[in-house]
Amino acid sequence: MSIRTANCESSSLRLEGFVRPVHLLHEMSDEELFWRASMVPKVEEYPFRRVPKVAFMFLTRGPLPLSALWEEFFKGHEDLYSVYVHTIPGYNLNVSQSSAFYGRQIPNKVVRWGSISMVDAEKRLLANALLDFSNERFVLLSESCIPVYGFPTVYKYLIRSAHSFVQSFDENSPLGRGRYNHRMAPDIVLSQWRKGSEWLELRRSLAVEVVADFKYHFLFRKYCQPPCYADEHYFPTYFNMFHGALIANRSITWSIRESKICKYNSGATTMCFLFARKFAPDALELLLNLTSAVMSS
């Protein structure tokens, strides 16, 4: 073992509690959590051996009926991923200690569909995942989501991507521009208003930026209420305004596995979706029977 390697390992052990929290439960308020999570080191070189991980963030009301499929997906790749679960308050996941989901619930709050609380929960997941400095990519998922490729393929696709995957488009309809509130001006004007899927994926730098945003989040809290749905507009609008060149302008989560052409880095690819959603719990047995074929791709 070289001196440099030994020093890195020793440094990693000393910093462990700070750079890679073992226990996710804490008593920080959202304001405190977002402040803590938005801290960025100025020294670019890490003083420990850092293997970039993908954070899989599950937003669910309670149970994860497809967790057995995810267990197969994660198996054998423990050093390359992290799991975070946001449930309704008071719900405890009933999983074994060997499960990838064991002890991975974060402090939660009530979430109401269509309200700004959906965005709050998504930012809460991002902030908790940012506390682990090894997390480099952040994927938002629901309890009805499944992977459609094996872990090595998904990991390589995300880690090597030059862009984050946020869908953001201008829809000139009552369900798009029609939801814009002119009282958001001059900070957000109609030409900047965007819509998109809430199921996004971010690189670490962009996750920090959006977690640190209070100004635009406040405007959405105040002026985007049903029939304006903040989870469909906040992230697409925010990233369009400030980081448009860094997003692929598409989601990697869809309802089926499709073969279509999309852009990936500087070229075209038919691998456009890594995850699929809206699968019912009773589909688990069939999905597990297909696991060997899917997870090997």
UniProtKB/TrEMBL annotation:
Membrane topology per record: Single-pass type II membrane protein
GO molecular-function terms, A-Z: glycosyltransferase activity
Compartments reported by the entry: Membrane
UniProt protein name: Dna binding protein
Keywords, comma-separated and alphabetical: Glycoprotein, Glycosyltransferase, Membrane, Transferase
GO cellular component terms listed in the entry, alphabetical order: membrane
Organism: Musa troglodytarum (fe'i banana)
InterPro entries in the record: BC10-like, Glyco_trans_14
